[in-house]
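Please review this one:
***
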Amino acid sequence: MSSRIRGIVFDLWNTLAYNDHLPNPILALGDAFDLRHRPRWRKVLEEAMMRQRLAGIDEGIAAISRLTGRTLAAEMIEELARNWREACLRSRLFPEVPETLQRLGRHYPLALLSNTQSFDNDIPGLSALPFKACVFSFELGRLKPDPEMFLRAAQWLELPPTNLLMIGDNLEDDILGAEAAGLQGLLIRRSQA
């Protein structure tokens, strides 16, 4: 039986926010480093770019290069960085997010929990959302589904994990990770994601 929900934790990307830039900057990085044929190839990018504080995409590309052992030509690095910067201008909250979170925030403490990079996260309207806590992978040096990420959100919300609901778009990282840490989980699928 589920415990009473007293707080809500949200994933960021493809749950609250999206980016519709083409070419997709994550796919472009995966292609450039010849990763997309590998199972769980996105985890390689997350390991390189999202477990540490980096100054920008140039440092992110260098971190991927170190992790994969693959060196890219200067022109390719420049193209990837330009594409990334252009894409950052296309990051948006889903239209219903501000109003929905303002309503929920009147009844529940809210947290944001995300595997994300430390740079280029200026999403219009994000800072106005009523989060009591924000847990980012680059600050903790860990990635979801590591239980410590979820337990830190519970600690900062000052609630037991069993009283928290994690809402996210990734079954393994968001939902199964949350449930392994004692939270309840709700999987959502976005058509724009």
